[in-house]
Amino acid sequence: MSLCSSSQASKKASNKRQRGQKSSSNVFSMFEQSQIQEFKEAFGCIDQDRDGVIKKQEMKETYAQLGKLNVKDEELEEMLNEGKGPINFTVFLTLFGEKLNGTDPEDTILAAFKLFDPNGTGFVNKDEFKRLLMNQADKFTAEEVDQAFALAPIDPSGNIDYKSLCYIITHGDEKEES
Fold first, then answer.
1. What is the pTM of this model?
2. What would the pLDDT profile of 135-149 be if each residue is shown by its tens digit?
3. Domains in the chain and their CATH numbers?
C-alpha cells in the first residue's frame, strides 16, 4: 500500500528533477539506477505540492501519514538544516548517500584537516600526518596509511592537498570512474 496517490509526480515536476540531476555532482554514481528510482518515489511522496522542494509542513504531513503525530517543529527544522539549504532531489539523495555510506560531510572532514594546518595553506605534510595517524587515537597501520595516501593528491614537496582529498572522500575519485 502506497502513501502516495496513484498519480505520482506530475510531468512538470519530473522534468524539474531531471534537469537538477544533469547539473549535479557524483552523488548519482553512488547508487544503482533502481535505487535512484526508489529515492525519487520517496521524494515524490514527501514533496506533496510537487514543487521540487521538501518543506517542514510536508515532512510533518508525511510523519502523520506514517502514524507519528507528535513530531516537534525543532526536530523537523534540524532535519531540514542538514541540507544547508532547500531540500531538492539532489540534496535529498546526497543526504541519504552520506548516511548510508557512513562518510562525514565534506565540511566536517575539512574542519578536521584544518586542525593540522594552522597557517591555512590547504596542505598538510605527508610524513607528519602519517606519524600522527600511526601514533594517535585510533592508530592506523602502515598498510592503512598507504591505502589512505593512494588516493591523496600529494605535491612534489610531500604535502597533501587536503581540500582535494576531502572532495575525493565525499564525492569519489574522477579517475576511478573513467
1. 0.46
2. 987 888 999 898 888
3. 31-100 (1.10.238.10), 106-171 (1.10.238.10)
